[in-house]
């Protein structure tokens, strides 16, 4: 497939309402953008002739620059083609701009966000966009060179995030992780020297605080199952939550994406949304009762079991994401009232279904089997996760000393 380069004005303004001039590189209908480093008013852009209008005082200089940038990009594309290099749009951009690049931190941040949007990783896009906004607020400008991001900068940033925005230690660490990711990318693109890397060793260390994972016990799950005084909305929420729990804490995205065609031979067959892994699990008897509740609404084998995504535009990732996000909020709101009716003091959310499975499993299931049920790629992840729910050895050790 052919690749091409084009000058475009990105329709994403900066804090001053100005729009960035970029080189768009496209391969196989996938595009990525190289920011030129100049911003203009949208009225100053001639979309038809692809040039800056005379209304901009720097029009002549900018148009010469744009012409040169496009010429350089096209020449590089021809060179890559002559070398028979088959690469994605993003890889082509890295080849073209690998040397002599002077992109700023926020330009690389925007490229990162653009890539997430193109890949339709909207949950990550929402999270990382928020993290970038905190860094912008701290820096008070989108002009930030990687050479400026040193230990002093990061320490001041951490103090600012905790004092000004009252962010938790976990949230602060997530922001540092994003900065580290972009700094590593900048090193690969030769934007900044590896000698200036501010992380690791005696420099800035990223260490997440230990978190407490609390799941329900068997008595509490039975109390939820036995509730009778529920509204129709609460019954539906309970069904979705129990469906998740009975499949080892299946993520809400995968629950809502479940179709009737995924259910056959008394098993659930599905591909995980998070990492595309294929799973096949036996359907517990309790789940068949949940499925019976929705059979009247089944029209086709490809119908969704649960109603939340039935009216979604499946070709529009943002619409699917928004409907899932709205549904999850509604579920969590309903779970608060369900917990109250069941006289459960613990906080219950959709994600607590996963913690609940881990809590009840304890140390009764072999870690390798738990790894398969949790769909973890690494056994270490499973061991660290399950350690939150295994207390017997510590309890026995304590009893052996104090019970005299």
From TrEMBL:
<feature type="coiled-coil region">
    <location>
        <begin position="63"/>
        <end position="90"/>
    </location>
</feature>
<dbReference type="InterPro" id="IPR035386">
    <property type="entry name" value="Arm-DNA-bind_5"/>
</dbReference>
<keyword id="KW-0233">DNA recombination</keyword>
<dbReference type="InterPro" id="IPR044068">
    <property type="entry name" value="CB"/>
</dbReference>
<dbReference type="InterPro" id="IPR025269">
    <property type="entry name" value="SAM-like_dom"/>
</dbReference>
<protein>
    <recommendedName>
        <fullName>Core-binding (CB) domain-containing protein</fullName>
    </recommendedName>
</protein>
<keyword id="KW-0229">DNA integration</keyword>
<keyword id="KW-0238">DNA-binding</keyword>
<dbReference type="InterPro" id="IPR013762">
    <property type="entry name" value="Integrase-like_cat_sf"/>
</dbReference>
<dbReference type="InterPro" id="IPR050090">
    <property type="entry name" value="Tyrosine_recombinase_XerCD"/>
</dbReference>
<feature type="domain" description="Core-binding (CB)">
    <location>
        <begin position="103"/>
        <end position="187"/>
    </location>
</feature>
<keyword id="KW-0175">Coiled coil</keyword>
<dbReference type="InterPro" id="IPR011010">
    <property type="entry name" value="DNA_brk_join_enz"/>
</dbReference>
<dbReference type="Pfam" id="PF13102">
    <property type="entry name" value="Phage_int_SAM_5"/>
</dbReference>
<dbReference type="InterPro" id="IPR002104">
    <property type="entry name" value="Integrase_catalytic"/>
</dbReference>
<dbReference type="Pfam" id="PF00589">
    <property type="entry name" value="Phage_integrase"/>
</dbReference>
<dbReference type="InterPro" id="IPR010998">
    <property type="entry name" value="Integrase_recombinase_N"/>
</dbReference>
<dbReference type="Pfam" id="PF17293">
    <property type="entry name" value="Arm-DNA-bind_5"/>
</dbReference>
<comment type="similarity">
    <text>Belongs to the 'phage' integrase family.</text>
</comment>
């Amino acid at each position: 497939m052919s690749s091409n380069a084009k000058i475009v004005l990105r329709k994403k303004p900066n804090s001053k309402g100005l729009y960035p001039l970029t080189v768009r590189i496209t391969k196989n209908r996938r595009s990525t953008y190289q920011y030129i480093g100049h911003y203009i008013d949208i009225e100053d852009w001639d979309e038809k002739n692809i040039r800056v209008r005379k209304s901009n005082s720097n029009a002549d200089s900018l148009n010469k620059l744009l012409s040169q940038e496009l010429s350089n990009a096209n020449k590089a594309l021809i060179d890559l083609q002559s070398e028979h290099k088959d690469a994605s749009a993003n890889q082509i951009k890295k080849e073209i701009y690998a040397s002599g690049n002077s992109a700023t931190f926020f330009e690389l941040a925007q490229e990162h966000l653009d890539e997430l949007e193109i890949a339709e990783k909207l949950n990550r896009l929402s999270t990382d966009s928020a993290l970038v906004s905190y860094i912008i607020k701290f820096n008070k400008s989108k002009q930030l060179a990687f050479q400026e991001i040193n230990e002093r900068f990061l320490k001041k940033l951490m103090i600012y995030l905790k004092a000004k925005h009252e962010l938790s230690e976990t949230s602060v660490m997530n922001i540092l992780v994003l900065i580290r990711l972009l700094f590593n990318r900048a090193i690969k693109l030769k934007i900044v020297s590896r000698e200036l890397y501010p992380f690791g060793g005696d420099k800035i260390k990223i260490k997440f605080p230990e978190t407490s994972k609390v799941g329900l016990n068997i008595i509490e799950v039975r109390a939820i199952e036995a509730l009778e005084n529920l509204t129709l909305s609460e019954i539906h929420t309970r069904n979705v939550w129990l469906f998740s729990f009975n499949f080892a804490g299946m993520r809400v995205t995968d629950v809502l994406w479940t179709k009737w065609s995924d259910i056959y031979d008394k098993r659930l067959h599905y591909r995980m949304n998070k990492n595309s892994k294929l799973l096949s699990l036996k359907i517990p008897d309790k789940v068949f009762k949940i499925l019976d509740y929705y059979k009247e609404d089944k029209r086709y084998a490809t119908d969704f079991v649960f109603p939340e995504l039935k009216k979604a535009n499946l070709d529009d990732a943002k619409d699917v994401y928004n409907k899932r996000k709205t549904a999850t909020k509604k579920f969590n709101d309903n779970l608060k009232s369900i917990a109250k009716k069941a006289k459960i003091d613990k906080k219950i959310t959709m994600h607590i279904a996963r913690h609940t499975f881990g809590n009840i499993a304890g140390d009764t299931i072999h870690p390798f089997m738990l790894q398969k049920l949790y769909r973890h790629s690494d056994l270490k992840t499973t061991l660290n996760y399950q350690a939150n729910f295994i207390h017997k050895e510590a309890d026995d050790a304590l009893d052996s000393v104090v019970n005299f």
